[in-house]
Queue: 4 jobs
Job 1
Amino acid sequence: MAYSDKVVDHYENPRNVGSFEADDDNVGTGMVGAPACGDVMRLQIRVNAQGVIEDAKFKTYGCGSAIASSSLVTEWVRGRTLDEALAIKNSDISEELALPPVKIHCSILAEDAIKAAVADFRSRHPAGADTLVSEQIACASSTR
Amino acid sequence: MSDTRQAQSTARPAQPVYLDYAATTPVDRRVAAKMVPYLTEIYGNPASRSHAYGWAADEAVELAREQVCALIHADPREIAWTSGATESNNLAIKGAAHFYKSKGKHLVTVATEHKAVLDSMRELEREGFEVTVLPVLPSGLLDHAVFEAALRPDTVLASVMYVNNETGVIQDVSALGAICRAKGVLFHVDAAQAAGKVPIDLAQLPIDLMSLSAHKIYGPKGIGALYVRRKPRVRLEAQMHGGGHERGMRSGTLPAHQIVGMGEAFWLARDTMDADNARIQSLRDRLWAGFQKLDAVVLNGDETQRAVQYLNVSFNYVEGESLLMGIKGVAVSSGSACTSASLEPSYVLRAMGRSDELAHSSVRFSIGRFTTEQDIDYAIEQVTQVVTRLRAMSPLWDMVQAGVDLSTIQWSEH
C-alpha cells in the first residue's frame, strides 16, 4: 500500500496528539467510530468566548490514513468558528491527503468527528458565544 | 539486557528484515543453482519421448518426483505436479467431488481453511453440493467429536489443513484421518505450510489427498503437487484437460526447471528440517519473550500445537495497519481489515472467537531458515517503539488506562 507523502508526514509527526483537562468546560469532545471497525477517533476542540476554536487535540485508533485525517483536522479547525469547522468536508480532507478510494471512509469519519465535537460543545453551551447567522430574524418585509 | 535508550542501538538493515516466511520464502541458492540448466541447456519437453532432449528433461522430472516422495514417504505414482497448492486444492476437492458424486454430495471442511479450499467448496455449493463448514475452538484446533458428528453416509470428502497459514496451529490429521477412514470418507489435507516443517509420513497417515507447495519451503513459486493415494485407490476428475499428462490427472507440459526446483527444495528440507526447527524455535521464543514485556499482548493460536515458525500476536488497542506502517524495517503480515483487499478482518482469527478489535490488532511474524538473532532483536525493538508510540495516540488505550471497560461503551457505528 503506497501512502502519500502527506499521510506519512502526519503519521510520523502527528499534530496535536493528546487531550484537554477533563474538567475544562470550554471543550467539546467527539468520539466516532468503533473498535470493531478498526477505526476510533476522538477529537477535542477548545472554544473561546468569541466562539472560535483556539485549540484542538486528537487521539486515534486506526490505520495511517485515519491517523492522518484526524491529525489534519486538528490543524484545520484552529482559528475557525464552530460553523466554519462544520463546513469542512471529507472531500477536502481526502484531496489534501491524496487518499485512495479504499481509504475515503477515513476522511468521512474525520468529518463526523468534527460534527460530534461541535455538537457536544453546543449541547453544553446552547445560546453561547457562537451566535448563528441563521438565528437572525429574516427581513420582515414579506410579512406586511 | 538493559533497556538502552539508544534509538539506533540496532543498525537499521538496508532491506527490511524479512519475517513473513509464511507468505513466501526466498529460493534457496542451492535450489536456484539446480534449476538454471533446465532453462537454457536441458530444455526439452519431458513428454518428448523420441529424442535426448526430452529424455534428459524427463529424467530430471522423475528424479524430482522421487525427491518429493522421500520427504513425505509416498510412491512416485502418487504424485501429480500442479501449478501450486491452490491448484492442488482445487483439483483434490472438485476432482473428488465430481468423480464420487453418485456416492454422495456432502462435503466437510473447517472455517479456518485457506481460501483456495473454502472457495472451491463454495463453487461446489453453487453446483448443488452441500458443504458443512465446522467451527474451531478458541485455540484454533478442531474438536474431534464435532468433526466426527459432521460426517454422514452421503459425505464424500473432508478437507482439513495440517498447519494453518495465519496462526501455525497444527491439526491432528492422523486422528482425523482415522475417523474418516472408519466412515468411508475421503480425507484431503492441505499441507502447503506443513511440508518441511512437520514430519509427514503418508505410509502411516490415513490421508487420501494432500496438497503441496514449493514456495513455502525455499522452492520457486508457481509449482506444487497433489498426492493421490493408490492403496486404497483414489480417483479424481481432471480439472485441466489436454494431453493427458500426470496419468490423466493434470494436463499441461511439465515445467522441468520448476519441478527440479521443487524436488531440490524438498530434498534439502529432509536434511535440514530438524536443525532448522530447533534454531527457529529458539528464535521464536526470543521474539515472544520480547513482546511479553509489553502490556495487553495476546497470542493467537494454541500454545503447543503450533509449528515453530509462527507467532501471531495481537497488540491490543493498536490497529494493525498503523503498526505495520511504523515498523517499516520489518516485513510481516497483519490480520487487520485495512491490510486485506476485502476490508474484512482475518476470518481465521474471527473463527477462533477473537473479537474484531483483536483481529484488527493482529500481526503475524513467521521465521525461516535465514532469520538471525539480530533480525529478532531488531523486530522486538521496532515493534516495542511503535506500539508504545501508537498507544500514546490511542483513545482506547487512554480509556483502558483510566479503568474504563470498553465493552460497556456505546460506539457510534459509522
Job 2
Amino acid sequence: MEERRGAVWRPPAGRALRRGSGGAGLLAAALLAGLAGAAESCEAPEGFTARDRLASKDVVVMFRTLPEAIEIGRHFSVEAVVCATPPTRGLRVDARMPEHRHGMNYRPTVAAVGPGRYVAEGLMFHMPGRWQLLFDVERGGRTERLAIDILLE
Amino acid sequence: MSSERLAAVLAGAGLLLGATATAQPVLDFEPAEVRRIGQHGPWPPPPTRDPSNRMSGDPRAVAFGQTLFFDPRLSVTGTIACATCHAPERAWTDGRARGAGLAPLDRNTPTLLDVAQHRWFAWDGRSDSLWSQGLKALLDPREMGASARHVATVVRADPALRCLYERAYGPRRGVDAERVLVDVGKALAAFLETIRSGRTSFDEFRDALLRGDRGAAAAYPLAAQRGLRTFVGPGRCNVCHLGPQFTNGEFHDVGIPFLVAPGRVDGGRHEGIKRLRADRFNLLGPYNDDAAGTAATKTRHVEPQPANFGQFKAPSLRNAARTAPYMHDGRLATLRDVVRHYSQLDMERIHTHGEQLLRPLRLAEAEIDDLVAFLETLTAAASPPPPAAPGVCGPRR
C-alpha cells in the first residue's frame, strides 16, 4: 500500500498512477496490464489535470485536490473524473482514519458538473495520521469503493 | 576529603551549573521530533481578518467594541459586562470553575486570548463566528439577558456610544434593533481580535532549535525539554493540540463525565451543532458579510453525528498556566490534575464512538512533573495590554 507523508500533503508533479488501498471492505485497485473497459478507455477531459488515478477492473477514478496541498485543519475540495462500466450513476466522497476509528467532522457534498465529472466540497482532515480518502462509485445497482491512503504528519 | 567525595562534590556542582539558564544541556532531539516541535510555531501568527465581519480590523469598530466590552449597561440588569467574566487581569477569564452571569452556568469561561484564531466558538462550537458568539452571550438569559431592543436602546440613548457607533458604521438611521445588535456584535468581535498573546520561552526554544542555535536553546529548562519530548512523542498530545495554537480547533471526548447535575447531561458538540444550525446569526444567515461564501464552508458541511455527544473543543494550551481551572466544566484545578487525568484515563467512561487514539499514558511522577514544566513554558511573560481606551467621542463636525 502506498502512502504519502508530510505535514502538508502535496501530490507529486505530473499525473501518477497508483494503487488504491486494500483492506476489509475496500476494493484493492488494480493496475495490472490488460484491464478491460473503463480502465483502458478512461482519459481525463481537456483542461482536467488529474494528479492521482485509482482503478479497479471496471472503474477508474482520476482526481485532484483543491488546493493541491492538503493541510491539517483546512478545508479542501476534490475534483474527480469517473469512468465506469456500466456508467456511473453517482459518486460519494468521504474520508476516515482507520486507526482512530473515526471519519471527518464534516460531511462533503458532491455535485455532478458534467458527464462522469464531480466536485466534492467540504472535506477537512483535522488530525495528523493516516487518512483514507474514499470514493464510492454507484453503477449498475451496486457501489464500488476505491481508496487512497494519505499520511499527514 | 577523599578523592571520591571530591569528585562527587564537583559532579554535584556541575549539575547545579547545568541547571542554570545558560549552561544546561539541550536534549538530542531526533529530526522527526524537531519537525514536530517546529509545527508549533512560528508565533505570533500574522493578524487575520474575518471575512464574515466587514468591520474586522477597522480601528473605529475596535474602539466602539472596546467601549462596549466594559459596559455593564448592555446586560438587562445593567450589572454584567463582557469583562465581568472575561477579566483582562485574569487572562480574560474569571478564575471560576464554572462561569456565572445573571445565573450560574454549566461550563468554564474560556479565555479570549488569541480568540481570532478560532474556527468554532464556545466549548461546543455553537457559533461559527466570533461576532455571533458575542451575540449569544448578550442574549442568553443566564449570561447578560439582553434583547436586540435593549441593546439598541442603550446604544442609541447614550451620546458617547451613539457617537462611537456612527463613527464606525456611519449614520444608521432607520435600521432596526436587530441590525444594531449585529453591528454591536461585529464591533465587539473587532475588539476581541486585538487580544493576542505574546511570545513564550517555548517559542524562543523552538526558534533556536530550528536554526540550530544550541546556545540559545540551552536557556530552556531541561524538565520542559523532557516534557516537550513526551508531548510530541509517546504522549501524542500533539495529535489534538497541534500547530502554533496547540489545538486543532475541533472536538473530542476525553473522558470527562457527562453529568452536569443529577439527571442532567451536557451533550457537548452534539448540542452545539444543533444550536448552530438553529441560529439565525450563523454564517448561512443574512448577516454574513463574506460575499465569496468561503467563510461558511464549515457551517454548510457540519452535521451532528453520534460521536459528537460529549465532545468538547480542544482548547489552546497557550497561557494555560494562567487560565485555571481546566476542562469544559472546570473540574480540574491545576495543570498537574490535567496531566494526571490523561495519565489515568478512564477508558470505561469513553463511549464506543470515542477516539481510539486515547489510552492512559501511565506516566511516572517525574514525567508528570516534566509535562507540567513544559506546559508552563507556553505562558507569555505578560499579555500585551489591550489597546488604549478610545478617546471621548463627541458629535460629528
Job 3
Amino acid sequence: MIEKDSERGKKEFVIFVGDIEEKWDREDAPVDEIMRLAGVADPKGHILEALDGRNGTPVKEFKPGEIVDLSLPDRKFFRITPGGGGFS
Amino acid sequence: MDEETLPPPLKEALQVLRKARMPEAKVEVVVGNFAYVWLPDVVYDPTKYPAPHRRGLWARVPIQFPLINPHGIVTRGQLNPVSSHPIKGESQDPSMCAPVQQLGGTHYYSWTWSGELGEGPKLNAPSDILGVVSWIERRIRNA
C-alpha cells in the first residue's frame, strides 16, 4: 500500500503486480480490473496474491469478483498465480 | 542431461525461469513425455510449514510445454504441514520418484492442472513457467 495526497487532495494508491505498476485513485480495487491492467486478458482461473514485499511471500489471496482494499497493510505488491488444480 | 535436445519452447521456459527466479533450475531427466525440472528455491508458507521455508523439488513439466499442462511434483521428504493433516494426491507409486530417487526424491504428489479445485488457465507461452512455479507454491500452501 502506498497512499499519497495529490495536488487535488485525492488519495492515490500505487501498487505493483509483478513488475507492472498500477495507480489507483480509490482504495477499493476490483481483482478483475487489477489483473486486466497487468495484462491478463481473462482473469478467470487466476488468483491475485498479495505479497509481504517485492518478490515476497503471499499473505492473502483474492479471486476474480472480489475487491481488494488497497488501504490495508501488505497491499502494495502482488503477483498473479494460476488457480485450479486437481489430483489423480 | 543435455538440454539442447529439448524442444525450443521448453528451453526458452528454462531460460526465463533461470533469469527471473531460479538460476540453478535445470532439467534433471526426461522420462516419457515429462521432464523432471529441478526447482531449487520453492517457497513454503512459513505459517503452514516448519523450516526450511525454501526447499528444492522437482516439477514434472511436459516436454511439449506450454501446449501440455504440468503434472505432479517430487519432493525430498514428505510434505509436512504443521497441522500434520494428510496431503491429498500423495502417490504410493515409487516409480514416479525413481528418476530422481538417487538425488533424494522420495515422495510424489500427483497434482493436476485442472480438477477438483477448478480449471487451471490455459498456458500460452514459455514464460508461463513462472506461473507454474507460483502455482506449485500455492498448491503446497493450500495442500
Job 4
Amino acid sequence: MIAVVGACMSVALVAGDAGAFTVNITARNPRTIYLQVGVGTFTGGTYTAGGSPANNPTVNVVSVNVPAAQIGSGTAQAMTTNSTASQSLYDNFTFCNLPGQLYIGGFYRSTSNSGAATLIATSPANLINSTGNTIPFTQIRWTSSGNGDTGAQPFPAGAFVGGVQTIGSISRNQWAESCHSFSYSNSAVVAAGTYTGRVTYTLSVP
Amino acid sequence: MTTATRSLLASALVGLGVLAAPALVAAETFRVDDTATLPSETTALLRWRDFAPSGAAQETLEGSVAVAVRLNLTPVLNRTGRLYLVLPKQGTTPVRVSWATQGRLLPGEISPGLRTLVYQGPVTSPYLEETLALRIEADGNFLPGMQPLDFHFEFDAD
C-alpha cells in the first residue's frame, strides 16, 4: 500500500510543477464617438450595411428670408436648411423631412461605464450683417422630432443662448438622432441685410 | 501462522497494492506542464464587432491571437485518456473563446468556468506541439481595462 501512496504523491508533484499560459485582453479602441450635424459620411454604405463613419467637413446652412412686411412682427419664421441629410446613416431610414429639418445624430462607444457623451452647442452672442448690425442668437430656437419616433428626443427642443449650452446626451453604446426644426422668433425690428453666425456642435465623452 | 508466513503475506499484499496502483491513478486529473506554451502576443487587442452601436446593443469586442502550445506529457506517456483546455472562472468580463488548430488537437470553444476536450486517445510522445488560433469575444460593457485570461491543460487518464 505504501507504493500506491507514493504513486499518488508523484501525481501531486506533477500538478504542482505545471504552469498556465495567459492571454491578456483589452479593447483596441475603448472609446469611439461619431457626430453628424447636417450631412455626414459613411464609407461602404450605411452602418447596418457594414459602413464606417468618415470625416465630412461640410458646414450646412439654416436660413430664412423674412419678408419686409413681416419684420419684427413677432410671428416666428420657419427656417430651412441646405442639408441633404434626410436619411439616417444608421439604416437609410428617412428620419428627417427636408428642407425644414436638420439631422443631428451620432454614437458613443465605451467599454467603461463612466457616463454618457454630451453634445454641446457654442453660438456667438449675435448674428451680424455686413454693416455690423446684430440679431441676438437667442432669437433662434428649434423643435425636435423624427419620423417614426414616439418617445422623448435625445436632443430635445430648445433655443440658442448665445454661448455654450448642452443640447443633449448619448448614452454609452447607443446611437442617438433627432431632427431639429429651427425658427427665427422675429420679435424685433432690425435693419435690412443678411445676418450670419456659426454654431459649433461638440460631442464630448467623459 | 509463523513469522515467515506473515512476511510472505505482507509481501503479497504489497504486491497487490502495486498492481492496484494504476486503477487509483486513473481517478486522478493531471495538470499538464504547459510552461513552454507561448501566445504570439501577450495582449490581444479586441475591436468592436460593429463599429457603431445599434438599438439591439451590438456590444461585442472581438480579436484573435495565436498560441504556440507545447505540452510536457511525460508523466502520462504511454497512457490513454482525455486532454482538456481549461479556462477557470476569472474576472468580470463575459468572454467566449473559440479556436482552430492544425490538427493535433481538436478545435472548440470555451467560456470561463469550463473545460473543453481537445484530445482523446493514447499519449505516444512526451511532448505535444500545436498552434491554437484563438478567437476571443468579450462583452464591451465590462472591459474597462486589461483582463488576463489564464488557461491551462488537464489530462484525465483512463
